[in-house]
């Protein structure tokens, strides 16, 4: 069975996916949401790739250089051994304190021993492969260009013979060499020594970055790998965090649930802030907060659920019909029509973010007045719209409903606004807002609770369960030991759990019954079990879920129930955020036990 056996490399400007045999199968340049230059991931024949080919009797092993985003693929046959160190350069500039992160991939080929042989199959297809890409060998580089849909170019620099590379000829490796794939033509010609220096500088950047992260008693390696992955999905220029590095990787093979995730969802924001701050990276958290504040519309304008990484508001959806799709799963989409949807939960998410910022960075708030103005605006909008139906967290494209999660997050908006009002000493608002907060809470308890199934349900009046209601506890709406919450967790375990993996919901949506597990829902479920006191069962589920990651510890959006194959866009920021949150909970529990033992 083929899996999403890819490693991600990146430099907070763009990212690339490299298969476990060393084939570069996905990259968009110059930034995450640009058109692709390699897209074999979405079309075996027409997408374009850069493969390292060896004879079948070579063994191939892949790992990350410890605590970095440098991917090492090792090829070995007896004494003939070499490694390809793949990375996108990122390091501090010496003169101004900013980061050097060019739109560039370096494949540093390290000679280990013997006389290993390989072929480089370099075949980029620019602009999503829409037109023909032509290659021209020049004195210092190979230039690839296309001009059908629009003019675009890509440059390859290498220490190896350029004609041999372009002909796919055999290369006998006797010393280190390199390939550098650049969106821009270089002013100074790269050399192997310079590329070795880039490798070391990038290594130092990541080691320094990881050094700022606390060490955890349990699951430390998994936390670090997830944190590095999350950092790679951060767009440096604006502070935005992408949902994933890819588009159109299907939730189910052969179906049409294929979406472009190279955008920034406001919903993910509060979890990003909490987790990234917990990991000690407060600057990243603050920059992401500023990204969100900058997006705040005028007082009477609706907040969108998602934005482009450069704060774009219009994300028109198109299909690329010339691409076959991942394993034939069409259509391939770019853009995402969900940006137009009404989702009432985002105001609670945003208010939670504002409260988190004030609670964590209260001594360093430059925009208090702005935040208070936003707070008042959010309460006004929630007060006006909380009773209306919406599309909900799962972005149903059919009719609007009164989704429980959306109502809970409307309550969160008021709860956090009241806390902010207390911080700012705005006592008049507190009384008025408390009445609305109590009204919403009462409405949820009356309409979202189904006494027949003894659980909070997906939407008012329904009998359907939904994993999103598990978040009631983590947002503070209900206590973990409240009998209503405990019985909801049990009902969800009984009805939505399939061999320890969670359905988001089981009722048919616009595309039929989901047949894969949404990875984050399983993490939510594990956290809920942990909170209600079933810690051993939660830990067993968590360790089993970790075993479903790919060979590098990475997760996508979904997992197939039967085969445990990774599906959906990859790697998924939300999955790794939830992994970190779970792992930290278990680790803290272990630390508390150790302290109690030492006291005893």
UniProtKB/TrEMBL annotation:
- Tell me where in this chain the Trehalase-like N-terminal domain is found: 8-133
Quick one: a GO biological-process term for this protein?
carbohydrate metabolic process
UniProt entry tagged with the keyword Cytoplasm: no
Outline the extent of the GH15-like domain.
Answer: 222-583
**Highest taxon of the source?**
Bacteria
Q: Name one Pfam family in it.
A: TREH_N
Alphabetically ordered keywords of this record: Hydrolase
GO function terms (MF aspect): hydrolase activity, hydrolyzing O-glycosyl compounds
Could you tell me which InterPro entries the record lists for this protein?
Answer: 6-hairpin_glycosidase_sf, 6hp_glycosidase-like_sf, GH15-like, Trehalase-like_N
Q: Which residues form a coiled coil?
A: none
Check the record and name the PANTHER family matching this protein.
GLUCAN 1,4-ALPHA-GLUCOSIDASE, TREHALASE
Please give the name of this protein. Answer: Glycoside hydrolase family 15 protein
């Amino acid at each position: 069975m083929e899996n999403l056996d890819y490693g991600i490399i990146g430099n907070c400007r763009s990212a690339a996916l490299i298969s476990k045999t060393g084939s570069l199968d996905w990259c968009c340049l110059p930034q995450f949401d640009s058109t692709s230059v390699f897209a074999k991931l979405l079309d075996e024949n027409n997408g374009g790739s850069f493969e390292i080919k060896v004879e079948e009797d070579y063994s191939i092993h892949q790992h990350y250089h410890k605590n970095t985003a440098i991917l090492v693929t090792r090829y070995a046959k007896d004494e003939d051994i070499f490694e390809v160190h793949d990375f996108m350069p990122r390091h501090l500039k010496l003169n101004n304190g900013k980061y050097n992160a060019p739109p560039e991939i370096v494949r540093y080929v390290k000679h280990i021993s013997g006389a290993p042989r390989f072929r480089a199959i370099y075949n980029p297809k620019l602009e999503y492969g829409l037109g023909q890409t032509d290659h021209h060998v020049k004195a210092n580089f190979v230039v690839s260009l296309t001009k059908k849909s629009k003019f675009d170019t890509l440059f390859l620099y290498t220490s190896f013979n350029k004609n041999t590379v372009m002909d796919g000829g055999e290369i006998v490796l006797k010393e280190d060499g390199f390939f550098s794939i650049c969106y821009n033509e270089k002013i100074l010609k790269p050399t192997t020594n310079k590329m070795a220096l880039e490798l070391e500088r990038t290594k130092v950047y990541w080691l320094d970055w990881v050094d700022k992260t606390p060490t955890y008693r349990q699951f430390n390696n998994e936390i670090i790998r997830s944190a590095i992955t999350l950092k790679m999905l951060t767009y440096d220029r604006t502070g935005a965090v992408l949902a994933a590095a890819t588009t159109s990787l299907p939730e189910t093979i052969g179906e049409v649930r294929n979406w472009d995730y190279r955008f920034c969802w406001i919903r993910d924001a509060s979890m990003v802030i909490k987790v990234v701050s917990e990991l000690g990276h407060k600057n990243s958290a603050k920059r992401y907060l500023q990204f969100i504040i900058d997006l705040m519309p005028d007082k009477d304008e609706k907040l969108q659920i998602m934005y482009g990484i450069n704060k774009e508001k219009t994300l028109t959806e198109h299909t690329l019909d010339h691409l076959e799709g991942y394993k034939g799963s069409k259509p391939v989409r770019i853009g995402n029509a969900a940006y137009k949807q009404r989702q009432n939960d985002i105001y609670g998410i945003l208010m939670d973010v504002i409260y988190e910022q004030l609670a964590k960075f209260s001594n360093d708030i430059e925009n208090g007045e702005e935040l208070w103005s936003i707070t008042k605006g959010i309460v006004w909008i929630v007060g006006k719209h909380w009773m209306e139906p919406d599309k909900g967290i799962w972005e149903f494209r059919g009719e609007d409903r009164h989704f429980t999660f959306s109502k809970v997050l409307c309550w969160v908006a008021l709860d956090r606004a009241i806390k902010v009002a207390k911080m700012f000493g705005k006592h008049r608002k507190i009384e008025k807002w408390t009445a609305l907060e109590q009204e919403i809470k009462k409405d949820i308890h009356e309409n979202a609770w189904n006494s027949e199934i003894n659980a909070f349900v997906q939407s008012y009046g329904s009998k359907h369960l939904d994993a999103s209601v598990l978040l009631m506890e983590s947002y503070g709406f209900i206590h973990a030991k409240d009998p209503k919450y405990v019985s909801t967790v049990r009902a969800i375990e009984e009805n939505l759990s399939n061999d320890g993996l969670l359905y988001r919901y089981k009722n048919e949506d616009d595309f039929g019954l989901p047949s894969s597990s949404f990875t984050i829902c399983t993490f939510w479920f594990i956290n809920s079990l942990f909170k209600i006191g079933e810690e051993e069962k939660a830990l067993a589920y968590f360790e089993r879920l970790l075993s479903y990651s790919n060979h590098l510890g990475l997760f996508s959006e979904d997992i197939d129930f039967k085969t445990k194959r990774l599906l959906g866009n990859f790697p998924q920021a939300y999955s790794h955020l939830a992994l970190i949150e779970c792992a930290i909970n278990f680790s803290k529990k272990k630390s508390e036990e150790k302290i109690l033992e030492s006291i005893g």
